[in-house]
Design a protein that fits this description.
heterodimer; A: about 650 residues; mainly alpha; 3-stranded mixed sheet; about 0% strand; globular; B: about 325 residues; about 70% helix; membrane (chain B)
Chain lengths: ~650, ~325
């Protein structure tokens, strides 16, 4: 099952080489087109090299390994850094490289007006390279190093537009909270290293399998909190709203849509591999509760925001909650339900990447065209930017899980998994949060794209073609994932889920065959998994029904209109737009209602709750750090109590 | 033959033709009943047909600030999606596509599409009244969705645990359960859920007292304020079909499993029950109470029906 290949290292190292190349030629401003070229080509090379890996890994179920410097393990002790790419790593890697490649194309036009672009592309490629490195490596310390490069590239990119005060503030918040998270992960890594004297993940998981000592429990708590910061789980979710708001959209789409997946990747590796906790009901409960909390707080905060990108950031927090809940159910001891949860979580990962990237790109398009993302100042853009409006609606319907878009399939799997696992309250909350999602997305649609066009925005133009094409690709992805869940499941999700559960193979490939069995003494059962167990939802069939009824309806209407026409009433050609809207006597420009005015009924009834949340998110970094620390403390206490 | 049968299902019964006609008849019956209860003579039962035909013959006005394509397409998409739901809900013993195509969660979500279409259409009209209307529509949706999901989960839990030992989302299993154990309405565990569902129907259909989103007297029909002619007719049609869908959903959740051994008799009895449900839940309420405010709607749905539904959910597990 081993597959030695140098493709993983090529995928990691090309962006880094590109970054240094750009750095080397940055003194010559005339070479700016070359820098853009380097950025696009490097991300393309990463994407292609990972695509070459799909056949052996996703289809044939092999695991690719590569030992850096050919430092092979000696006497079953890993010495050097080993890359190990299983289906799950490749799955996450594909999400990363695909989105980054499109983002690099989007950046070319989007960032045209900014200066210091050489630094932008350098940091962009560093971010990309570190993300790929993070998911492809098989070494715990290497993961930390990649995470650190990732965090610092992301911080610099967040504060990239440093003429704006908000960017610097966001960068500062990010640097404090992000470093705290990294420190926790480093502490966890150190503690594990002290216990096992190795940094290779396969070996660690073999050594501390079902073998908890106080030190490893503490390490687990630290690492969970650290990855909680990276994946922005409540209460460590306080940096993304600022960071995603002020970063350029081409970066915030990566931060929100893709970088959060690395946090989840860390979580899954931690819980399913290093500390093998499948079947531990207490751990399952913790993760599900944590995810549910994240879901609720994210959605409640999103509904009261008045900034396009800030709202999207909070919505990301809430969607990450869904994914975490799904992976929590995946830990269930009832394997068939657990697998359903894992599949749903993986599906929601890929879906979230597609629609959140698209939403941030739409926000970027609005910013590019109008210069603001404050939804109280926007409105009526659908007349000026029809293409962006359609794409935004696709993304909004996808994220709020309307059938037949992609969000529905994954959420539906998550509902089933949680409900069948016996967490009925979680299912109810998940269903209601989904309606909340719809609510804040409709708020965006109403306040930004529909409603009245302010006088200032009358000169607005549709975004250039390169931007709209990249956005279109994501919209297409949303539709394909929504309409053909069987294919997605068969070729992407099932191999990835299989590899998550197939711990034996992961360890055996790194060392020798039978190594894991010797260490574990018994085999871990791997459940069967197909999309079939999810139940009855065939979007493509629904779509056919929809089309048939639509055709039938149009024919029927055509016939009956002909009948009406006999009475000499002309109905077809009256599309004149000479009429203004009815405003009850007010002048039109004083009438628009949008942004904060919406959802009064909800906010009035829950003013205590929303007031508390608003007060809690005070914007003071000290408070936020306290939250992260208390989260770590609570986790440690809980884990010590139950393990 | 299979294709022909499917086409019959899709286009005639219970799909396009039947759901539109029956929805309109239902809304006619509703209007007549309300009139009789208020000691008026009321319109003839066929009146909704005349209304729709009249609207179809009227001029279509599209305001200057509206997003034209969205404005036109939104009502159409809402209507067609609500008609597709009719194929997923079984009539007594007849499963159209329900076994393989959709379960209750799918139906719940498909039911949101018409509301979203109304919201998007209203937003696209660019009117300030529509803005208030869509905000209210959204909050109404948030209000009734809470009890609705709990009801559905409670019934699914009750039926699934009895039949297969685990919870279910399948309407077929729920119907099988009722065949074996008697209708859910007569079952003490699911009775609260049934009552809560009766409260949800008027809000989902958008009638008094929960028609805050379309309050004619305050915000001129909210999202519909700029709609006229054919497109307004489609919205009215959607509302009528939704009435049929909600009635039928109630029947299959709480009154399913009755079998006379004769398909036609079964279907007729089902239709009768739908009319009864709509008269009880929509017409009775509509004729005696006035419209309540939006925050009262939210408060009402998050208290009484939710508590009823939660009681059912708890009883289902004991």
């Amino acid at each position: 099952m081993n597959y030695v290949s140098s493709l993983p290292i090529i995928a990691i190292i090309t962006p880094f080489i590109g970054a240094f190349l750009i750095g080397a030629i940055s003194s010559n401003k005339k070479l700016l087109p070359a820098m853009k070229g380097i950025a696009i080509v490097s991300s393309l090379v990463s994407l292609v090299s990972l695509l070459f890996l799909t056949k052996p890994i996703l289809l044939e179920g092999k695991v690719a390994t590569y030992w850096l410097g050919n430092w092979m393990p000696q006497e079953q002790m890993a010495i050097g850094i080993g890359l190990e790419v299983d289906s799950f790593g490749l799955f996450t890697g594909l999400i990363i490289t695909f989105s980054s490649f499109l983002s690099s194309i989007y950046s070319v036009t989007y960032m045209k007006e900014d200066n210091a672009l050489d630094k932008y592309y350098t940091l962009f490629l560093l971010l990309l390279g570190s993300m790929i490195g993070f998911v492809l490596t098989g070494d715990l310390f290497n993961m930390y190093v990649m995470l650190e490069i990732m965090t610092f590239a992301a911080i610099s990119l967040t504060a990239f537009r440093n003429n704006i005060y908000k960017s610097l503030e966001a960068g500062f918040k990010y640097i404090v909270i992000g470093s705290l998270g990294s420190t926790l992960i480093l502490l966890g890594t150190v503690l594990i290293y002290a216990q096992t004297a190795t940094l290779n993940m396969a070996q660690i998981s073999a050594l501390i399998h079902n073998n908890y000592t106080p030190v490893t429990i503490l390490a687990l708590a630290f690492m969970m909190a650290g990855y909680g910061v990276k994946a922005f789980l409540v209460p460590c979710h306080t940096w993304p709203p600022d960071a995603h708001m002020s970063a350029p959209s081409s970066v915030s789409m990566l931060l929100s849509g893709v970088m959060s997946k690395t946090g989840i990747y860390g979580f899954v590796r931690l819980l399913y591999m290093i500390f093998f906790s499948v079947g531990m009901a207490k751990m399952e409960l913790l993760i599900i509760l944590w995810g549910t909390l994240t879901m609720i707080v994210g959605a409640s905060m999103a509904i009261i925001q008045t900034d396009f990108k800030r709202l999207l950031a909070f919505s990301s927090v809430s969607q990450i909650g869904y994914i975490i809940v799904a992976f929590g159910v995946g830990l269930s001891s009832k394997s068939s339900i657990g697998v359903l949860g894992t599949l749903g979580g993986l599906y929601h990962m890929i879906n979230h990447a597609s629609f959140k990237c698209l939403l941030f790109m739409c926000a970027g398009a609005v910013l590019h065209a109008t210069g603001t993302t404050d939804i109280t100042k926007l409105g009526g853009l659908s007349k000026k930017m029809p293409y962006t409006t359609i794409l935004f609606l696709i993304a909004a319907f996808s994220i709020s899980g309307l059938p037949p878009f992609n969000g529905f399939v994954s959420k539906w799997m998550i509902y089933q998994a949680t409900y069948e696992a016996g967490y009925a309250p979680v299912t109810i909350i998940a269903l209601i949060v989904s309606v909340f999602t719809l609510a804040y997305m409709m708020k965006l649609a109403q306040s930004v794209f529909f409603g009245e066009l302010p006088k200032k925005l009358e000169e607005v133009k549709e975004v250039p073609l390169t931007m709209s094409i990249t956005m279109g690709v994501f919209a297409l992805a949303c539709l394909v994932e929504g309409l053909f869940p069987k294919i997605i499941s068969k070729y992407l999700l099932e191999p990835a889920a299989y590899s998550i559960y197939n711990l034996h193979n992961y360890i055996d490939v790194m060392f020798t065959k039978g190594f894991a069995e010797k260490m574990f003494k018994n085999k871990i059962p791997i459940p069967n998994m197909t999309y079939e167990m999810a139940g009855y939802w065939r979007p493509e069939a629904w779509f056919v029904l929809f089309i048939v009824i639509l055709i039938g309806f149009i024919i029927g209407v055509g016939i009956s209109l002909n009948f009406v026409k006999k009475n000499n009433i002309d109905t077809t050609c009256n599309f004149g737009d000479k009429y203004g809207v009815f405003t009850g006597g007010e002048k039109e420009e004083f009438a628009p209602i949008a942004g904060g005015d919406l959802f009064w009924g909800l906010r009035h009834n829950l003013k205590g709750y929303f007031g508390f949340l608003e007060k809690a998110h005070s914007g003071v970094v000290n408070d936020y750090v306290t939250w992260v620390i208390s989260c770590t403390a609570v986790l440690s206490i809980y884990l010590f109590a139950v393990l | 033959m299979e294709t022909l049968k499917s086409l019959f299902y899709i286009l005639i019964f219970p799909g396009l033709l039947f759901s539109i006609c029956f929805g309109l008849i239902l809304s006619g019956i509703d209007r007549k009943m309300v009139a009789r209860m208020q000691r008026r003579i009321g319109p003839p039962i066929m009146q909704p047909f005349y209304d729709i035909l009249k609207l179809a013959g009227k001029e279509n006005l599209i305001p200057r600030v509206a997003a034209k394509k969205t404005f036109i397409l939104a009502p159409l998409i809402g209507l067609i999606s609500v008609i597709t739901i009719s194929l997923f809900i079984p009539f007594y013993g007849i499963y159209f596509f329900s076994g393989q195509f959709g379960d209750i969660i799918v139906i719940l979500y498909l039911l949101t599409i018409p509301a979203v279409a109304l919201i998007i259409g209203g937003a696209a009209s660019g009117s300030p009244y529509a803005s208030i209307g869509i905000s209210r529509e959204m909050v109404t949706m948030l209000s009734y969705e809470v009890p609705l999901v709990i009801i559905v989960l409670a019934v699914g839990a009750k039926a699934g645990i009895a039949i297969s030992g685990n919870v279910t989302f399948s309407l077929k299993v729920i119907e099988d359960y009722q065949k074996l154990y008697g209708v859910n309405l007569a079952n003490l565990a699911t009775l609260p859920a049934a009552l809560a569902f009766l409260f949800v129907i008027p809000a989902e259909v958008g009638t008094v007292p929960f028609d805050v989103a379309e309050a004619e007297t305050e915000i001129c029909e909210g999202p519909l304020v700029e709609y006229s002619g054919f497109y307004l007719g489609i919205y009215k049609l959607t509302q009528a079909v939704k009435m049929f869908i909600m009635g039928n959903l109630f029947v299959s959740l709480f009154l399913g499993g009755i079998n006379f051994g004769n398909t036609i008799l079964n279907v007729l009895f089902n239709i009768l029950l739908i009319i009864l449900v709509i008269v009880v839940s929509v017409s009775f309420v509509r004729s005696v109470v006035g419209r309540i405010r939006i925050e009262q709607t939210l408060k009402f749905f998050w208290t009484i029906p939710t508590v009823l539904a939660v009681i059912s959910l708890i009883l289902a597990y004991i």
